[in-house]
Write a structure and sequence with these properties.
The complex is a heterodimer.
Chain A (H helix, E strand, L loop, with lengths): L3 E5 L5 H27 L3 H24 L8 H4 L6 H24 L1 H4 L6 H24 L11 H28 L2 H37 L3 H11 L4 H24 L6 H27 L2 E5 L2
Antiparallel strand pairs in A: 1-2
Chain B lengths: L3 E6 L8 H14 L9 E10 L2 E10 L7 H5 L5 E3 L5 E3 L9 H5 L6 E3 L4 E3 L5 H4 L6 H5 L5 E5 L6 H7 L15 E4 L3
Parallel strand pairs in B: 1-9
Antiparallel strand pairs in B: 1-8, 2-3, 4-5, 6-7
Classes of the chains: A mainly alpha, B alpha+beta.
Chain lengths: 306, 185
């Protein structure tokens, strides 16, 4: 028989959760911005979303740096990198993303200054989107590889984080596009409403898949090693249950899914529908942040004592 | 090169905590900053069995100086590293304080050194060992329950205890720990 002690990890908290959220979010929004730029060209909502995606990741990186005990030494990750560490892989992905994202966004925002980057936008956009996908996956891998925390150490986690990142990305893109639907008219209104319709429909499906993954992961954990079981119990019946069941599952996933398929997609872009769609998007974003927070908080290390 | 390891003999350990106090004293003096009591090594008294057949089990929490240390693997700057003689150490000046090592250690062997603002842990008293002395906890143990030595030297006491069945507790994590325990009888 093996004797164990369960130790709650207390080193990674809110700042890391914010980073995990913003990293996945920014990466996904950039992919969408690139996609719509290829489809519609340089539209105001594309410009805004591209800018916000790069800013989100940059703020996320700032959170990571602020979480360091020695933020003034952060540059050592460049100067003396230990390549086996996922933080090093992540740092280079984040750097590549921010540089490529900025190179893609700058000619749209400051055409006079950065117009010379315009011919490269197809490539900066494509490579930036690839780096964005990398950033989104990396947030899940960073904690998914931690063998000591059985709740995190599952291949489901990076997939769940990627799916959630994509869902929050769809929500943010629509949140930043929806206000323009109300102000636009004619064809432009049709175009913007069409985009938001597509985003909401996709988000509904993605969130359905996310609910499935989430339940699968919690149930596997409940049947897993004692530490994973204790973690899952914190989420479904312990101190994190209000956040997990209420904030994430009910308000951040099931309610938006119900509103999207039950009301939002069942008619034209009336102001009521637009405002409701904005509320949905906001709920999904808050849910995404809660997911990262509760996953970190529920991390339990199983120390074998005999 | 030596391959340092430790054996803790729970047949003779009386749970007095001399190792814990000696560790704090030695390393606080050596570092020049206070090492909180029990931060680098401590003993958990675990009750086992059901009345009337109960006994105490003394679990020694300490860095296992793993052959395949997850803390070294995840460190982004190489601040956590393994010496040639198999001791896992921290280069405090190179540590950025990301705390990935603390999350990754399956033995909860690290603590936050508040003065240095970096993670910290047992060093096997490498500063003493390099001068031919034993680690402070080993020297202080009144029942000779902590034994330190070269696991590659078949004649060393640690090697003999390992050959006679001392077990690396927590080896199921696949890290190949180098702190062994002789289970109580």
């Amino acid at each position: 028989m093996e004797g164990i002690l369960l130790v709650n990890q207390e080193w990674w908290g809110s700042l890391v959760a914010l980073y995990l959220f913003l990293g996945g979010l920014g990466g996904s929004v950039f992919i969408l911005a690139y996609y719509y730029w290829r489809r519609y060209g340089e539209k105001p909502e594309v410009r805004l979303n591209a800018l916000v995606s790069v800013a989100a990741v940059a703020v996320g990186v700032l959170m990571l740096i602020l979480d360091l005990e020695h933020p003034e030494r952060a540059f050592l990750v460049y100067l003396s990198p230990h390549p086996a560490s996922w933080i090093v892989v992540g740092t280079f992905l984040l750097t590549a993303f921010i540089l490529l994202g900025a190179a893609f966004t700058a000619p749209m925002l400051l055409p006079r200054l950065f117009g010379w980057l315009r011919p490269l936008m197809r490539w900066t956009g494509l490579l930036g989107a690839a780096a964005g996908a990398g950033v989104a996956v990396y947030t899940g891998i960073l904690i998914g590889v931690v063998e000591s925390v059985s709740f995190w150490h599952t291949p489901l986690l990076p997939v769940l984080f990627l799916v959630s990142a994509f869902s929050t990305g769809l929500s943010l893109y629509s949140l930043l596009t929806l206000p323009r639907v109300l102000g636009a008219s004619g064809e432009e209104r049709e175009r913007l409403a069409g985009i938001c319709h597509g985003l909401a429909f996709t988000d509904g499906l993605v969130m359905g898949f996310e609910v499935f993954l989430l339940l699968l992961w919690v149930m596997f954990s409940l049947y897993g090693p004692p530490a994973a079981r204790a973690s899952a119990e914190m989420l479904v019946a312990g101190p994190l249950a209000p956040l997990f069941l209420g904030g994430l599952l009910a308000l951040g996933l099931l309610l938006p899914i119900a509103l999207i398929f039950g009301y939002e997609l069942r008619g034209g872009p009336t102001p009521a529908r637009v405002y409701l769609a904005m509320l949905c998007a906001l709920l999904v974003l808050v849910g995404g942040l809660i997911l990262r927070y509760v996953v970190l908080r529920a991390g339990i290390i199983q120390v074998v004592v005999f | 090169m030596a391959r340092y390891g430790m054996v803790i003999d729970l047949r003779t350990c009386i749970g007095c905590g001399a190792c814990v106090v000696a560790c704090t004293e030695e390393n606080s003096l050596h570092l020049g900053v206070e090492v909180p009591l029990g931060a680098r090594t401590h003993i958990e008294n675990i009750e086992i069995g059901r009345f009337p057949s109960v006994h105490w089990y003394f679990y020694h929490s300490i860095c296992r100086h793993c052959e395949d240390p997850p803390c070294v693997h995840v460190c982004p700057t190489g601040a956590s590293y393994k010496t040639e003689d198999g001791v896992v150490l921290i280069d405090y000046d190179r540590c950025i304080g990301c705390k990935y090592c603390m999350v990754a250690c399956p033995y909860d062997a690290r603590y936050m050194n508040e003065q240095l603002s970096t993670p910290d842990k047992c060093t096997f008293c490498i500063h003493r060992v390099r001068e031919g002395l034993e680690p402070a906890c080993v020297a202080a143990c009144p029942t000779h329950s902590r034994v330190f030595g070269d696991l590659d030297d078949p004649g060393s006491e640690v090697s003999r205890l390992v050959a006679r069945g001392a077990v690396p507790v927590g080896a199921s994590h696949g890290t190949r720990p180098k702190v062994y325990v002789v289970p109580p009888e």
